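mind reviewing these tokens:
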Amino acid sequence: CDSFTLYLSRLNTDVELCQSLRRLLADEIVVSSLDPETRRVAELFMFDFEISGIHLDEEKRKKAVNLNVRILDLCNEFLTGAHLPNKIDKHVLPEHIWYNFTAEGNYLEVAGLHADCPDDLVREAAYKIFLCPNAEQLSRLEELLASRNSLAQLVGYDTFAHRALQGTMARNPETVRQFLEKLSDQLSKRTQKDFEMMTEMKMKVNPRNSKLMPWDHPYYSGVLRAERYNIDPGLYCPFFSLGACMEGLNSLFSRLLGISLYAEQTQRGEVWSEDVRKLAVVHETEGLLGYIYCDFFQRPDKPHQDCHFTVRGGRQKENGEYQLPVVVLMLNLPHSTRGAPTLLSPGMMENLFHEMGHAMHSMLGRTRYQHVTGTRCPTDFAEVPSILMEYFANDYRVVNQFARHYRTGQPLPKNMVSRLCESKKVCAAADMQLQVFYAALDQIYHGKHPLKKSTTEILKETQEKVYGLPYVPNTAWQLRFSHLVGYGAKYYSYLMSRAVASMVWKQCFAQDPFNRAMGERYRREMLAHGGGKEPILMVQGMLQKSPSVDDFVDALISDLDQDFETFIMDS
């Protein structure tokens, strides 16, 4: 992967290639004869040349390549460092909490934040030890940020954020800052109420130490959800067998898009594990659209993450045939047992729908070029199809099509779905405020350089200003912020994608989640183009209007409002 990235970096500074493309784009007659997607791909290639410093003299071009190589090395080193455990002499901690950590002689190894542990002392110890500053990791982060800034300025951008946001929905850091500031302002009072509720809950549990701290937020928000709505995942799992959920997806895609999923036999040596299943994606009139390999089950040494990735992108071949896309959906589901099929928790079911949203983006993209196939589009648009699927997964009319108790066949009661959906709104403002804090920190780190303060001082200042819970001395959370590698200056994308998905859901599918006309519009305006069309134009085509920053913010805030019917029913 590293050598391939380096090879691409060299191609992006190949003067002959660039001059050939530049001659083509300068010829008005030729350009006017190109279809819109071909023109966009040509412009994207030219953009790649320009951000790599093709316009520079030879010495500066070499410097740009060397900076790219160094940035790649630093990214790998930072990612490795971000996941390493920290060790501490076990006698520093009370003996009764030792069992929560891995013991190595006289040391305890802390490999995470233990955010779900009910013991306040364990969470506090894990937070302070796991986030303890590491001089080497600090040095890597500082060099990574400085190198990115140097590369951006070398090729003509004010900051790395300006370079990274070119071509996205947001387009520039100023829009991102405006979006985050307006969202933060709208969230402020709601977040304060959430923190007050968490503090009250902590006071009940731990009256001697009731001040709300950063290690409390994930735990007490979960406690509040469970207490207020009595949500026990174990009550839901029997209704969400893997087979039922796949049938639900098949039914939804059939009604919305005219698409069916068929299991296909794999050939010997075709898959990397015997429990990987192959699905053919078939349209009712167009036939086979592509293949999805479903790598759904836990196994030793498998990366513990849910994701979608492309094996082969779709493209128009020279002989006129279309190269069908091939993708993988990877989850970490439990295996079936002798007495029960694989049962999914509500969170697992939602993740399955989310990842299948990415897969459909890949399957339904019909681009001429592999460069812009499926999910190969700007980061702040790429999550829209997957997050939109979460709205379907939380709608009773959709869930009622497939959620059946695996033993009795009884459908999942409507009030259980409503309570589950409403439970997600408990402390959701504080959760969103935390995401705003992460996104704001990312923007500052990739903004104007040299940074006015150290990365830790910036963290402290931003956390207290944007998030609201106090910074904990001698911690450096930013050194564990692995998203700085893959989402540098683009962490806001999660929030902006969610805003667009929310608007699409409310305007196009909330009234009827099986509306075929809207499904066809969704395919035509958003999924078919991959990255072959400007993202904001795809959103405009779907919504029939151009959304403003205020529209994005309003969409996110309205998602936090309680459903009146459920509220009255529960009262």
The CA atoms of residues 89 and 352 lie 41 Å apart. The first helix runs from residue 2 to 11. The chain has 25 helices and ten strands.
